[in-house]
Amino acid sequence: GHNGIADILSQVGDGFFRNRIGIGAKPHKSMDLADYVLSRLTADETSLLDQQMTNYLDHIKTITTQSPERAMIFINQRKPPISHE
Questions:
Q1: What pTM did the predictor assign?
Q2: Which domain holds residue 65?
Q3: pLDDT recorded at residue 30
């Protein structure tokens, strides 16, 4: 979670690359945030994550074979949200 990242940053600094994966908003406002964040992925969510794995691996390859700066150009480009349908 956020505090875990804060702890890592306090221990090692920010001189590393990280790839953030968002989970989106809670499906119901009344749902407990911790329950939502810690819930199991649905089959659709697992499929979406699997589809994105190729992108994550491409980012790592670009970082290691070209340059971190080049990879960041692609990683930081805004992309339309992936539909859950």
A1: 0.54
A2: 2-75
A3: 94
